[in-house]
Amino acid sequence: MTLYDSEIEAVLGGAPEPEASETVTAAELGEWLNLSPARLHALAREGIIPWHEGRFDLRKAIRAYVEHVRAGQKGRLTSNPDLAAQKLRLAQEQADKLAIANAKTRGELLDAKTVAATWARTLTDLRAAMLAIPQRVAGRCALDRPTAGALDDEIRAALEALADEA
């Protein structure tokens, strides 16, 4: 008995080892491997599990299937690192997209164009109100033209200084 035979026996709970020439039907082999007869026939057509005249050699079929599964696991473990990195990047991008959509739904995220347009209107209105101050103050306080002009110059200088900083 090989190491693999003892492992299989341990997994199966000490099931009796089949005879080397014992053949079984797809349904019987399916009970051993927990596969449907249709799947077993497909594996046989693909050349993964050996069969002869619709019957399977139990020992050879089990070994062939185990090797097939192991080969598949090795292929997954040593997969292309570039492909794995691309899949990770895709998953991160999808998660970011979902997070942004959720933030918009909750009202935590605003459209940048809308915010910029709103601020532009607000600042334009603020500028117009600031530039109207000298005329309103001159009318209320009976300021002469040179004083109102000086006030207008100071407000314009302050607005230009703010514009230069931005």
> Ranges with pLDDT <50 over ≥5 residues?
none
How many β-strand runs?
Answer: 2
Query: How many H/I helices?
Result: 7
Pairing-aware structural class of the strands and helices? mainly alpha
Average pLDDT confidence is 85
| Major sheet | 2 strands, antiparallel
Helix content: over 70%
List SSEs in N-to-C order. HEHHEHHHH
Shape: rod-shaped
How large is the radius of gyration?
A: 41 Å
Tell me the β content. Answer: under 5%
- Note the gap between the termini: 83 Å
Strand order, largest beta sheet: 1-2
Folded structure, characterized:
The chain is mainly alpha-helical and 166 residues long. It is built from seven helices and two strands. The chain has helices at 3-11, 26-33, 37-45, 58-77, 81-106, 112-141, 145-165; strands at 23-24, 56-57. A two-stranded antiparallel ribbon has the order 1-2. The termini are far apart.
